[in-house]
Amino acid sequence: MSNRTIDALPISVRNVTKTYGPVHALNDVSLEVRSGEFLTLLGPSGSGKTTLLMVLAGFTRPDCGSLKFGDREVIRTPPHLRDVGMTFQSYALFPHMTVAGNVAYPLKLRKVPKAEITERVEAALETVQLGGFGDRRIDQLSGGQRQRVAVARAIVFEPRILLMDEPLSALDKKLRDQMQIELRHLHEKLGMTTVYVTHDQREALTMSDRIAVVNHGRIMQLATPRDLYDRPANRFVADFIGESTFFPVSRSGSDILFDGSPLLYDVPPPDTKNLMLMVRPERVILSPEGPREGTNNFTARATDVVYQGDSFLLHAALASGAGQIVLRGAMRGANVMTLPNVGDALTLSLAPEDTVLIDGSDK
Ligand code: ADP
Ligand code: MG
C-alpha cells in the first residue's frame, strides 16, 4: 500500500429499518461511527449485524432511513461507488483464480491500468503478510491465509471505509488471537473507518475503540469496551458481556437495600422500577478478617469451590437467603494457601466502585 494516509470518513446511520416479512432485521437503527474509528457490532446470531453491514456496503436497500458517509447521502449509491471495502462472512473468494487474480478484482472493476494493478496487488499482499503468494491458487491456502487474501482484496483500492463480517470465525483459537492483533495493527497503519462484526465478546473487547451491542435489530448500547463491561445499560448487555450474577434490590427512601443493608455505591443508579445489583465474579473479595470498613459486606457459606488452574471459582450462599454469589480469584499469593472449603462461613466484600446498579429488564 502507498504510505499516504487515508482521509477517513465518518458514517451516520439514521432511523434505518429493514424488514423481511414479519422479521425486523433492523428496527429503527441510528448510529454514528467516528472518522477513523474501529467500531464493532457485537450481538448474537440473527440480531441484524450482517444486515446492517450490507446496508452500509450498499448490497441491501433498507425500507427507510438515511445513510451518510461524511456529508454525502449514499443510500441510493451503488456499492462500487461507495468507497467501501468489505470482507464477507464466507470468504467469497474466487476459488479457481490465483491469489493475485482475487486481489486484483476490485481494481479491474474500477478500470485501473494494468501496470498499476500489479504493483498495488503486491503491495496489498505485503500489507497482509502474503508477499510473494500472488501466483498461488486459493485452494492451496490455509484458512488464515484465505482470510488475509479477503482482507487484501478489501483494502487494495484504499477505500475510506472498511467493513468486515465475522472475518475470523472460521479460524482456530490460536490463529484467531494472532489475526485479531494483526487486523488491529492494520487498522492503526491504514486508519480507515472500520466497522467490524463479531458474535464473540472477547474479540470485540480486544479489538474495538467502541462496541455497539445489537439485539433483535436494535442497538442496545454503544460504548467503549471498558464502559460496556463496567456500566452495562441493561441486563441483556450485562449478560452478553462477561459473567455476572443479578440480584433484585429494594428502595427505602434514598437508600437502596440489599441483603438487609443499604448499599454503598459510587455511580447513581438508573431511574427504573426494575433495579438490580450486578455482581461480576472477579470484583468480589474474600475478606478473611471479617467485614471491611467502607465496603459492602455479605455473610455467606461456601457451597462449591472449583479449581481452574490460573484461578478459582467460589459459589457461596448468602446467609440472608438472598441467593448465590459467585467469586473468581487468582491462584496466587495468599489465595493458594487459604482456598476455602465447602461449608466454610465467609465474609464477601464488594467495593462501592464495583457495586453496579442496572436496569434489570432484559430488553
Ligand atoms: P446476524 O448477522 O446478526 O446473524 P442477520 O443480519 O443475518 O443477523 O439477520 C437478521 C435477521 O434477518 C434474521 O432473523 C435473519 O433470518 C433475517 N434475514 C436476514 N437476511 C434475510 C433475507 N435475505 N431474507 C429473509 N430473512 C433474512
Ligand atoms: Mg451475520
Attribute tags:
alpha+beta, 6-stranded mixed sheet, 5-stranded antiparallel sheet, binds adenosine-5'-diphosphate, binds magnesium ion
- Strand proportion, as a percent range, falls in 25-35%
Helical fraction equals: 10-25%
Mean pLDDT: 92
Helical stretch tally: 9
What is the strand and helix layout of this fold?
Blueprint: E1 11-20, E2 23-33, E3 38-42, H1 49-57, E4 64-69, E5 72-73, E6 84-87, H2 99-109, H3 114-127, H4 143-155, E7 161-165, H5 173-190, E8 193-198, H6 201-207, E9 210-215, E10 218-223, H7 225-230, H8 235-240, E11 245-248, E12 250-252, E13 255-258, E14 261-262, E15 275-279, E16 285-286, E17 296-307, E18 311-318, E19 324-330, H9 334-338, E20 345-350, E21 356-359
Parallel strand pairs: 3-8, 3-9, 6-7, 7-8
Antiparallel strand pairs: 1-2, 1-4, 4-5, 9-10, 11-15, 12-13, 13-14, 15-21, 16-20, 17-18, 17-20, 18-19
Short description:
This protein has 363 residues and is of the alpha+beta class.
Outline the structure in words.
With 363 residues, this protein is α+β, with helices and mostly antiparallel strands. Helix content is 25%, strand content 33%. The chain has 9 helices and 21 strands. The protein has helices spanning 49-57, 99-109, 114-127, 143-155, 173-190, 201-207, 225-230, 235-240, 334-338, and strands spanning 11-20, 23-33, 38-42, 64-69, 72-73, 84-87, 161-165, 193-198, 210-215, 218-223, 245-248, 250-252, 255-258, 261-262, 275-279, 285-286, 296-307, 311-318, 324-330, 345-350, 356-359. The chain has a 6-stranded mixed beta sheet with strand order 6-7-8-3-9-10, with helices on both faces. The protein has a 5-stranded antiparallel beta sheet with strand order 16-20-17-18-19, with no helix packed on it. It has a 4-stranded antiparallel beta sheet with strand order 2-1-4-5, covered by helices on one side. Helix 3 (114-127) crosses helix 4. The longest helix is centred in the middle third of the chain and has 18 residues, at 173-190. The two termini are 44 Å apart. Adenosine-5'-diphosphate binds at residues 20, 23, 25, 43, 45-51.
